[in-house]
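stage 2 :: seqdesign
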């Protein structure tokens, strides 16, 4: 029960972080995407630090959940971050949510419940992750992130095209989520060392690799939130993180899940989540909001 509570609180913290960071990013030049100059500009904005504080709280809550639970349980719960973010953003940016958005949110919630209930993950042997598994898994993870970033960069011009900003925001959101999935795996590896004593967490390489991976994910997240609307970046970010994490949990940490009919029903829940996100991604609210493309005072 503690695992579910901590994961839900992490989702709430992440939702606050996304909205605060979007508030800081929304009027910055988009040519700063994937450049250190973007971070330098953000460092002058107090609301960005509020977002980073919320993100840090979310990471700590996620670490606590992973210390007592499995990757394939904790990370799917973080999908709740998306509807929480949209509801909060609709109030902060005065952008009303309509039937499409509420139906997608309901579909995601039902799909998540089905996924967790029928998958029913049980603990694996996280201490048995070998060096070659870490290297292979991290290598594939990094290649996927790099490929998605490049796909986003090669999209239609984000400053003059109607779809470019949304494509870049979505792609960078997916890349950030995939990077955070690797971060979660490293976090699980670090927290698993707590069985040998709290101090042992700081003597393992996973903790420091997690910090580096998390900073890369944070940098990609800022570019996603700068490239387009929050509604464009958030779905990919929210889905790719748990998807990558569950793959790490099952393939690397040997977490056990139900097979047979239960697995089919769990996959149906996962499909419902994906379909709901795809429907949400086609929302009329997914419109570039660069000042050059919208009249002054238009909502986020």
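stage 2 :: out
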């Amino acid at each position: 029960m503690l695992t579910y509570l901590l994961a839900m609180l992490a989702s709430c913290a992440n939702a606050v972080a996304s909205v605060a960071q979007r508030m800081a990013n929304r009027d910055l030049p988009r040519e700063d995407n994937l450049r250190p100059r973007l971070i330098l500009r953000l460092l002058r904005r107090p609301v960005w630090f509020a977002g980073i504080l919320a993100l840090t709280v979310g990471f700590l809550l996620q670490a606590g959940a992973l210390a007592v639970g499995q990757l394939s349980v904790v990370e799917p719960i973080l999908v709740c971050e998306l509807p929480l973010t949209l509801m909060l953003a609709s109030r902060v940016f005065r952008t009303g949510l309509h039937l499409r958005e509420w139906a997608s949110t309901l579909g995601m919630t039902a799909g998540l419940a089905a996924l967790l209930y029928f998958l029913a993950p049980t603990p694996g042997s996280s201490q048995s992750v070998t060096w070659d598994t870490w290297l292979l898994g991290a290598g594939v993870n990094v290649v996927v992130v790099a490929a998605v970033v490049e796909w986003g960069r090669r999209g239609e011009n984000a400053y003059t095209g109607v779809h470019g900003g949304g494509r870049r925001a979505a792609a960078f959101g997916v890349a950030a989520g995939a990077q955070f999935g690797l971060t979660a795996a490293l976090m699980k590896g670090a927290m698993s060392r707590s069985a040998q004593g709290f101090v042992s967490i700081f003597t393992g390489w996973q903790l420091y690799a997690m910090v580096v991976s998390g900073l890369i994910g944070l940098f990609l997240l800022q570019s996603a939130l700068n490239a387009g609307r929050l509604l464009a970046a958030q779905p990919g970010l929210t889905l790719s993180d748990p998807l990558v994490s569950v793959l790490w949990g099952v393939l690397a940490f040997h977490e056990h899940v139900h097979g047979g009919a239960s697995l089919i029903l769990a996959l149906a829940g996962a499909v419902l989540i994906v379909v709901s996100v795809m429907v949400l991604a086609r929302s009329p609210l997914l419109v570039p909001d660069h000042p050059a493309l919208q009249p002054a005072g238009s909502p986020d």
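stage 3 :: structure notes
- Confidence is low (pLDDT under 50) at residues 157-163, 286-299.
- The chain is about 70% helix and 0% strand.
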